[in-house]
Fold this protein.
Amino acid sequence: MNQNVTNQMPCPASEPDERGMSDEALSELISRTLERQQMLAELQQVIVQDVEKRVRRQWIRRVARVLAFSFGLPAVLLVVGLGLYHYVSHVGLTTFSAAALLFATLTMLYAAREALRNFSPDEV
Amino acid sequence: MTDRELVEEILTHGHREAFGQIVARHTSLVFSRAIGILHDEAEAAEVTQQTFVRAYENLASWRGENLAPWLATIASYTALKNIDRLRRHRHVSLSETPQAERPEEPYSDERERRLQQMEQAIAELPEADRKILTLHYYEQLSTAEVARRTGLSQANVLVRLHRIRQRLKEKLKNHESERD
């Protein structure tokens, strides 16, 4: 890749020096190092963009979780409560419907209590 | 700013641009560690990216003053995991994995070490010299074109290139003697 550059170099000699590095080898090493630096500079940009993207995604997930917690839980309670109300008003208050009502209410209260107890601002 | 201060900036103030500084500071080290294990540039670049993402996600758990050893550990772990993944996916032996993808410029520790020494030597050059070097060796411009771009005479460019090469050779020699 560096053929033309090497040919233009001001040092005509290409004999290895005492460390065994010829002018061609030095030119090649310089070119390779600069290519590596350029590649790493581009890689740095990609990494920073990738991290930014992940941070944005994480923020969206947090907002979604807060919304689900704030509105989702009451919405579920409301829907189940309304469902039970309709069921009881339609069927009437029998032993079975009363037991179902009690069971559903206790389950909901337990689920809500667990959700509140496990809530952690750090995890949101 | 030290690594610790940069991390504090990110964790307490949410300044994510500080992470860009961390990346710029340690990419070379992480890449070098990765290529030392994988012997493949593309895979090493991938591992470098994964390393920094993992580091960012676990910044809060980091304790210390210098991020380099921590990042190097993550890079080594990630590189070894990638080797394992490559072996499982391609059903080839560990020694075959890097060779299969790299038809030219075989990796060697010696070559990698020289590249790092040269990188350091170039970084120590004055900005103007680095520019001449980049134009000539990276962009592959002729000395006449470099002269036109930099506003110097062609003779001056030739002399400066000669001096820069001598300086780089000298620095490499010094690095080598320090190492011995």
